[in-house]
């Protein structure tokens, strides 16, 4: 969703019905930092970078993240379904991970 040249994350249908952790974005000393957990991430352990939606004080926003940062951990071992196992879908946790701001052209 783009509002006044600002990239915003659109809510997922039924997202409010899911009881799962969220990712929060806060401005740190050197820019945005993400903390929290995202579930259902395809390529959780094989991707090098990701676009992540996170909650800010002004609503949800989209951020670019280097998944090689030491504050990122990923686990795709939770899938028992044989049809989804090869999708490398899992949970990614962020702990004060620097994030690029797409509005500023930094991913």
At a glance:
The chain contains one helix and eight strands.
What's the order of the H and E elements?
A: EEEEEEEHE
State the secondary-structure class. Answer: mainly beta
Looking at the chains present, what oligomeric state does this protein adopt? single chain
From the N-terminal CA to the C-terminal CA, the straight-line distance is 17 Å
**Major sheet, described briefly?**
4 strands, antiparallel
- Count of helices? 1
Mean pLDDT over the full residue set: 79
Q: Please tell me what the overall shape is.
A: elongated
Rounded Rg: 14 Å
Segments where pLDDT lies below 50 for 5+ residues? 1-5, 16-21
Largest sheet, spatial ordering of strands: 3-4-8-7
Approximate strand percentage? over 45%
Please give the number of β-strands. 8
Specify the helix fraction band. under 10%
Write up what this structure looks like.
The chain is mainly β and 107 residues long. The chain contains 1 helix and 8 strands, in the order βββββββαβ. A 4-stranded antiparallel sheet has the order 3-4-8-7, with no helix packed on it. Strands 1-2 form a two-stranded antiparallel ribbon. Strand 3 and strand 4 (31-41) form a beta hairpin. The longest helix is centred in the last third of the chain and has 4 residues, at 82-85. The model is unreliable at 1-5 and 16-21 (pLDDT under 50).
SSE blueprint and pairings:
Layout: E1 2-3, E2 6-7, E3 23-28, E4 31-41, E5 49-56, E6 59-66, E7 72-75, H1 82-85, E8 90-99
List keywords for this structure.
single chain; 107 residues; mainly beta; four-stranded antiparallel β-sheet; two-stranded antiparallel sheet; disordered N terminus
């Amino acid at each position: 969703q783009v509002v006044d040249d600002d990239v915003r994350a659109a809510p997922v249908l039924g997202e409010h019905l899911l009881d799962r952790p969220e990712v929060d974005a806060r401005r740190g000393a050197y820019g945005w930092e993400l903390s929290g957990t995202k579930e259902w991430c395809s390529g959780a352990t094989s991707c090098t970078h990701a676009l992540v939606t996170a909650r800010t004080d002004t609503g949800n926003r989209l951020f670019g993240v280097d998944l090689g940062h030491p504050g990122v951990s990923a686990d795709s071992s939770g899938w028992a379904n044989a049809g989804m196992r090869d999708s490398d879908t899992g949970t990614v946790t962020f702990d004060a991970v620097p994030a690029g701001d797409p509005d500023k052209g930094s991913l």
